[in-house]
Each structure stands twice: as structure tokens, then as C-alpha cells.
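Researcher: Going back to the complex we discussed earlier. I've cleaned up the inputs and rechecked each line, so this should be the final set. Can you rerun the prediction on the complete assembly and write out the structure?
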Amino acid sequence: MPEVRLEEVQRFMEDCLRGAGAPVAEAKAHAELLLHADVTGHYSHGLNRLELYINDIKSGATDPNAKPVILKESAATAWVDGGNALGATVGNFCMDVAIRKAKESGVGWVSAKGCNHFGMAGWWALKAERQGLIGMAFTNSSPIMVPTRSKERACGTNPVAMFAPAADGDSLGVDMASTTAAMGKIEVQIHKGESIPHGWALGPDGKTTSDAQLAFNTGHLLPLGGFEQTSGYKGFCLSAMIEVFCSGLSGANATHNIRGWALDSKEGPPNLGQCFAVINPECFAPGFAERVADCLRTYRNLQPVDPSLPVLAPGDKERINAEKTKSRGTIVYAQRQVDVSNAVAATVGVRPLQVVA
Amino acid sequence: MPEVRLEEVQRFMEDCLRGAGAPVAEAKAHAELLLHADVTGHYSHGLNRLELYINDIKSGATDPNAKPVILKESAATAWVDGGNALGATVGNFCMDVAIRKAKESGVGWVSAKGCNHFGMAGWWALKAERQGLIGMAFTNSSPIMVPTRSKERACGTNPVAMFAPAADGDSLGVDMASTTAAMGKIEVQIHKGESIPHGWALGPDGKTTSDAQLAFNTGHLLPLGGFEQTSGYKGFCLSAMIEVFCSGLSGANATHNIRGWALDSKEGPPNLGQCFAVINPECFAPGFAERVADCLRTYRNLQPVDPSLPVLAPGDKERINAEKTKSRGTIVYAQRQVDVSNAVAATVGVRPLQVVA
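Model: Rerun complete. Updated structure for the full complex:
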């Protein structure tokens, strides 16, 4: 499979976004967001999503020149209008506000309307963690989750992300959709020609299916927990809680009113709601980073059921992937991914991805 | 099965706590907390837990006369020492501080060490909701969850609760353990002589079991999501995130250092960590309560798979239970529950529960 150097992936995505009309700084920031997903092994949210962002700029759903504005604020809060700017533009703006407020008042809680897809939620939480703070990020999304007992979709994959700094440059990181599996994982099973476990998705008859293609075509994901008897309503509750933070506070579209999921939607701006929160551990008991490190150490040293599968602390999988990717200096993509990306690039006059010989 | 009037349950629990040495106001507050659990149908956290609290007062693990104190504060935060007071004493103190700060600064985020069991997490979130605010509550707990891939326990049932006010006196309420099922649900299956679904708990061999008694004796609960292939690591991540808020911020014991779960522990104060957060929706977009009501309406009106099982919005089950209980005016307990409670009462010189004739 083709291998591409990290700098080249960044150059390519930045050029494509600029080619579509984004200012240099915003194109750079958005490309960094997507590159982070590929570096940490979440390929669904990296180069794979470039097409969506370019299409949304072309259709006018995303305004790459828009500047988010604060509509209302208090010591610890801000209500923001994202103005349908690029995901990274809104994410950086809101997280900077939340970080400033957390440094001043202990907490910063920012909710924004008029948002577009902001990539991996974890990237935004990480931005606060890098400054020694607890960062959180939430977003709503297109309706794709079937609430417990329902035949119909009404909720989103609405992720929650939280990063907390730990001693010696370590961190505890959570970044999870409130569905059992993301759509991207079903796509992976299709590409591998494998079935999906029961508890991931429903077929068109409202019953569980292990057929990955049928699950993909139906697009009815189950909440985290799966069915009612294994507490699937908890994943639904989590999604609803995130809805409160995202559309409830900001006045954005609720998930059930958001446009359907498509790479080339003609339905205009999704008007997603997003929420960014920061807590300053210095306002609490001394020794926070050491206590988080103690948890990480404890989790990593637990005796595994299968000695070949060590217990991973939250965030370890992404950290291990990132270390491997960075030491190799390249990302390996499916040929189809490269072809699709080059086709998108051609429409905005950008030269193709240069693959390592 | 014996039926007891609500006022009599409150009288009985209040008298027992007073008999064990709690001041009138604290006994009343703690009994209200337990009564709420029975009224909403969460019997594991009501009268059923009275024995634990009485035992902890007797052993000195709980100091019913202690007063929580603020150790450090900023505009939006407070670090509290609960002083091993009763759960309701610490919960009311911290939630009052968080509510005041949310009214002044938009958010109140309070983390406390030196805590005892605080009953249903949802009760604390509800306290803020009743004032038109978003309330949240988190606690860590005894180690009983087996992290993904691990043979050993290290995490707790660490619940997250959130209540948000909706128009016309309605609310959206979440109150969920980060395990698939709480221990109380396994006890219920034992009492019914039924098995448990796979994905709830492991047996002593580290493999899934459907034997309720074996699961209870082993005490190795699986995180929400169950096994790794159905994203059990997300429940583990949720528990770890709550650990950060509870022991990370406050300096309380981390779950892996908390005494084992027992009704009559001799291991001294558990030194749990708890976190209480409040967000003021008035600092954000106007119309918050209407938007939450729209979500509730949408969820409730979804077409169900089985017409006899309507889709419930988060919090509906508890609301329906509470309405039934209040209109009946009584709570129905198992005979064994009444007997155990009366035996506890006798040790503190309190007259037995008066059962409805």
C-alpha cells in the first residue's frame, strides 16, 4: 500500500483546503487536525474526511473565511456563533476562550452553534492538556443512532473527549463515540470482507445484524451497551447528555434536525452544536498530575487475561500508534484512499500526493 | 409483600440515623436521599443501604457530626474536605456551593475528598435542576470493575449523573453507572432465580458467566459495552474520566486504593472522591428549556420496535416509578428487607417499620 511522508500529507491537505478557498492559517490548522487522526490511527477522521470538508466549502455549507464571535459571556462561560467556519477555526477559537477562562476563573465552558464537523474530538481536549489543564470536547452529529426500543434514528454518535495531564509528560485520554461502534469501523469490516459483532447495528427490520454491508446501508447504529438487556440505554443517555451541552446550550440544530450523513450533502450548513470545556487542576488539591500518573501505572500493570494483550490505559492505543507513525515518518494509506484524494485535489488545482518510492 | 407509607419510611430511616448519632437535620437530609431512591424504583440505593450507613457511623468510618469545609476556591471552583461526614451532608454542602458559583460565574465545579457513599448520584444533579440549572454529580467507589483485557479489578461503578430542566416542569435526567450493570441488578437476578446476560460479569476464571450467584461471589463487573469487541473499553474510559474528576482533583483515594465493598467494613473511612458541577443555561442561548423539551418529545414519539414497549426519554423510567409510588403513597418491600431493617433499628433503639395493615 502507498506510503506518504507526514509533511507531504500536511502539504497536500493544506493545499487542497487553500485551493478550495480557505485562508493559509485556517487551512494549516484544519490540516493539522486531520493529520493528527491519521497519526494516531483513526484513519476515518483524517485524509479520509478531506473530501467532505472540500465539498462543504464548495457547496457554501462551510464558509472558510468566517470568524467565530462571542455572543454572550460570563466569568466561566461563553456562547459562540461559529458562523459555519471550518471545524478547526471554531475549535481553536472556542478552546482558546475556554483555556483563558479556566486560567482566570477555574473553569471555562464554551458552547457554540453554527459549527461544522470538527474532526477528532480528542484533538480539542488535547489542546488544553498541553497547557497542564483538563480539556473536554463534545459535538452532536447527523442522526444515525437508534435509541433503545426505537425503530427510528434520532441521536448521533455524539462523542465525549477528555484529556488530563499526568506526571512526566504522560496523559490520560478519552475520546469515544456514544455508539458501540462508529460508522468507520463498519466500513473497515466491509473492506476486510468480515462480519460485525451483534450489538453494533440494526438491519432494516429493526433487528440486530452481523452483515456489515447491510448495517452500513441501513445506517442504524446501536448506542454503547448495545441492546436494552446489556444497558444500551446508557449509551443513549450519554448521547442525550452531550446533546444538552451542544445544541441545548448553544441553540444549534438538535441531532434529530441535522442533515443526513453524506460526503456531498446539498442540504446547506449542518449547524452542529459543539461544546468545549476546560478545568484548571491548580484550583484543587496539589499533586494532580502525580495522581493521574498513579492511575495510569495501575491500569497498565494489571494482570491481563491474555498475556499477549496487555491492559491499555485510556489513550495508550493512540499514543502507541502515534509513536510508531512518527518514528516511521510516513502514513500508509489504501490505494483507493490516495486515488480518491487525488481526484478531489484535481478539482481544486492541487498536485497529487507524492508517494514514497 | 409488606407495604410501608412514605412518611413512615422517612420517619424510620431518620430515627435510625439519629439513633446512631446523627444530628436531626443531617439524619433528615440523608433519609430524604434514600427515600428518593425507593420512590424512583432504585431499591438497591434506598432502605436497602441504611444498614451500611448505620454500620459506618458505628465503626467511626462516618462522622455524622462533621462539617465539610472549603479548602481552596476560585470564581468557578471549590476544593472541599468532606471530613467523612454523612453522604447527604457533603452532597448538600458541595451542591449548594456549586449552585452559588454557577449563579455568579456561569459554572460551579466542586471536588471533595473525605467522602462517604452519597446514595443515588442523580439526587444531587436534580438539586440543581430544581433551580433551573444543569446539575452533574460523579463519585468513585470500591474497586469492582475489571478494565478491558484485565483479570483484576481496579475501577469502580463510578456513576455519572446529569439533570437538565425542560419546559413545563419536565426534565432530562441521566444517572448511570459506568459498568454494564450495577451489583444490585445481579442481586435481583439471584432473588428471582434467573441467570444474567453475558457481558455483565466475569467468573473467577476471567471468562464471562451467566451464573448470577457466581458473578456476585466473584464481584468482577464488566464496563459498559461489555467485551472489547463491543467497545467495553469505553465504559472503562468513562470510569477513568470520572476518577479524574473525583480523586484526581480532590486528592481522595483513587478507586484502586478504596476499601473493598462490604456492608460492615472494618477498614475505616473509605475517603471517596466526589464531584459536583453546575452550569447556568442563562449564560447561553435563550430558549434552553424549550430545546430540551423538544428533544424529550422527539425521543418519546419515536416509533418503537415493540408497540408494547414505548421509547423512554432519559429519566422517564424514574419519573413513571415516582408518579406510581406517590399516588399509591406506599413502598412495597420484600419481607426480608423489612426484617433486616428492623434488626438494624433494634441495635439503635428505634421502633420497627410500621407496615400498612
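Model: Worth noting: The longest helix of chain A spans residues 87-105.
Researcher: Good, that matches what I expected from the previous run.
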